[in-house]
Amino acid sequence: MSRTIVVAATPTSNGDLHVGHMAGPYLSADIYARYLRAAGRQVIYTTCTDDSQSYVVSTAHRQGTTPARLCARSTEAIQRSLRAMGLSMAGLPPVGEQYRRAVLDFVTALHRAGRFRLTTVRLPVASRSGAFLYDGLVSGTCPVCLAPSCGGGCEGCGHPNNFDQLLDARSTVDPSDPVEYRETAVLVLPLEEYRDRLTAYYASRQGRWRPHAMQLVQELLAKPLPEVPVTVPGDWGIPAPFPETPGQVIYPWIEAMPAVMYSTWWSAAQLAEPAARYDEHWRAEHGAELVYFHGFDNTYHWGLMDLVLLMAHGDRYITPTLNVCNEFYDLAGEKFSTSRNHLIWTADLLAEVPRDLVRFHLALTAPEQARTNFTRDALHDNVSRKLVGPWNGLAGALARAVAGAGDPVPTTAAGRARCAAMLTRFRSCYELPGYSASRAAETVLVQLDRLRGLADDPRTAPGDLLLEVRTVLAGAAPILIDTADRAGAAGVELSLSAGPSDFVPAFDLPRLPGAGPASQETDHEAADHRDPAVPELLPIPLSAGAGVRGRPLRDER
Asked: Where are the domains of the chain?
């Protein structure tokens, strides 16, 4: 059986992950990876910190520290947040000498093959400091949508703005330092040379990508494709080894492909699957399936530029089966802002609310195809009234229904048919191209309501109730990981690939935390989905809220 490689957008090591980042690619990719494993497939879920990004430099300057110290501190914080959320990846690989060798091997192979072009471009420069400005070091106005933008790409419309294209350019490190332009020779990757292959690739995926991301791709293809910088003048990053560009570094976005190849290799080694080369698992002859999870504003990078980097190696590597792209996640109707402290750090939320409940709420409200909103009231309502009360009420009803029914308990044809329908529904939520963690979470709520009524019906066969509750538990398992672990430890079968059976072993449905002691919940309250014992779940002020881009952390304006 071929393996699936699941890649979440590489987080820039200039800060921790806030709730918005987590609700974007990281949790969504984890739920998908867990579903694949439950369906019996081999998976490596991975990512890698993006230490070379210019946003590390600008953030370090603002915080009065060095880029190296900021990277180290941020990587530790990101690692803690990933573990705290229970993401099923091996961890963050070290960005050291092995990483640098992987990047240089990847780019020098393309250089030897003649894939790069030496081109003279106009680059913005801070007049007094003499620093060349690119990406997070420069801000201005997007030339396409005229919204405020940093260099490299606009987070609003998603279009790139390389070199001198950004309007009203100014230094983010020192806005008072006048900007001038200098002609400089850099190596570039000409995307236009891959138009035919790109057009064929996207044509084969029409109707599979989410519409907004595919619209951006079509907008980009409707005009000449840009030349992507391969090297830039700078002193933060991996020194470029090419004789044509002395004193330059590898453009940070060029590192993405070898970075996640390296992180795949490292992750496999943690699973006792060592490989000789960093790119072994991405080699086309192994036939792995590749799926990316990222935010809309990374569509150009992960969906186009990085795809060309793979294509430029000929047929050596796999290309992504699908890019799963999310939109922005707001807080209380406003875009998050680090400078205004308008965010909630993932670690802070998890310190106040049990992990399963956080995962469920973020999955349910994930900004999959439109911007969505995080509020304290919505969190409390979703996890208390809609989830915890009905779930724990069902747990009590199940225990009463199967008392004295024997073990294992026989099922009926009608119950098995309903179970099969639920399995089909959950699989349709988790499978590509229609993957939707939000729809899976909503399916859990719908089935809880139905099963609570079924449990109260004296005509319901105890075995049918057991079988259907087990199916809901299995469908919720990629989201409610701690509850699933407790059930699995008790011997409950949570496979999503097995069909309904004629007999089902008796089991207790693990209760969810946060809804108060079971003794304080009456049958009437459970059926009505109300629990007066529910405490306030989020004593965090909204001024510490969250907004999402579902992409690498950047130096926020």
From this structure: 3-94+101-105+255-350, 112-195+204-252, 357-364+376-527
